[in-house]
Amino acid sequence: MKKIKIPLLTGLLALTASDFLQAKQVTAWVIDGESERQYFVQMEKDFNEKFAGQDVSLKIQPIPSYDDAIRAAWMSNDLPDVVMVDGPNMANYIWSGMLQPIGNMLDKEVLEQILPGVRAQGTYSPDNKIYMLSQGDSSVLLWGNKKYLDKAGIVAPQTIEDAWDYDQFTEVLKKLSKVDGVKWPLDFKLGNGGEWNTYGYYPFIKSAGGDIINQKTWKADGTINSKETKSAINKMKSWIDSGYIVPATAGDNRFFGDKTAALSWVGNWMWRSHSQALGDDLVLIPAPRFGEHSYAPNGGWGWAVPSSSNNTKDITTFLNFVLSADQVAKWSTATGYIPARRDSIKMTPMFAEGGKAEMLALQAQEIAVVRPVHPAYPVITSEFGKALKNIFEGADIDTALNRAAMAIDDDIEDNMNYPPFDK
């Protein structure tokens, strides 16, 4: 998933919630992304106009170098009323004591309309309480160039139920490799690195019946190096070995730039670039499967409340406003992310039934797979990502995965099994 990286401003750490706090004002720190910025300006205005007569106002504060800033503010007890949290980091923040549950602050209709994957991402299993909810969700599928598919005589599946399995998809790649103009059948985003290595490829492992950690015992050994996980990785590696995949060194725009790749495995954030470049030749194809079911990534930034916040009444007003159907639809329109509510999907032409990006919304509703919600996730994803990269580059699969399992289990053991996950 994309993050906006902006250098830390001089004196930022001196910027605290108290600097913005006014009487009965809700303060919210937000990410400082370009597409999000315009939405936040309008959302603050909408809130303050709507609640002008209720003696509550909202102050939105974009924060550069966001993760570093909120960690520093938490350590100095200077967090605002509301923060944004990147989903994979949530469990670690909760375990560290940074966040409080928000489920009892949310209206019933919010909880009824929120997508199951978004709710699962924001739920902490030890107490089964919601600590974070997002306005939007992400998903990844196959983006195809219809011109090349037609030349190869390939008819793409139209439904999730008809998604290609491994053998079918491998045959598709083989056929595309023989089409004039196609240098590589698939851009698999090998050069993305970082969190993409888990976010982008974890669904294939889940589809094959594997995982990167046992989500009952919270042990990696025996799961991250299981036969199912290795089978999924070997299948992905077979595409690389066959020359079907854009190399990591070949750049990021082979699908929509010089159009030398026929397919691309990437997320909703590429809609604008892809649609502008391919026009009517752009087709969206459901995620392939390695087992009985296909899965697609999910996750993103969501709203959470620091444990230090006590302005519960006004925070409740804000959360239900920002997670309302109207605001979720506006967030989606501004950012290109999938609306996190079912009713908001119907309000957003691009993702609604018959919309050009309907398949992304269907995947978010039906096959979203949440990355492990555990305090050790930063270590889990780092170790798995390194192992997968090394395997894709030719390292021995057993050695790489056994090493990752050991590193993850050592971290969990060093933290006394992250109680209460030890029960």
TrEMBL record:
Source organism superkingdom: Bacteria
Entry GO MF terms: maltose binding
Coiled-coil regions listed in the entry: none
UniProt family annotation: Belongs to the bacterial solute-binding protein 1 family.
Protein name, entry field: Multiple sugar transport system substrate-binding protein
Species, as recorded: Marinomonas polaris DSM 16579
Pfam families: SBP_bac_8
Keyword rRNA-binding: no
Keywords, in A-Z order: Signal, Sugar transport, Transport
Signal peptide start-end: 1-23
A Gene Ontology cellular-component term: ATP-binding cassette (ABC) transporter complex, substrate-binding subunit-containing
One annotated GO biological process: maltodextrin transmembrane transport
InterPro entries listed in its UniProt record: SBP
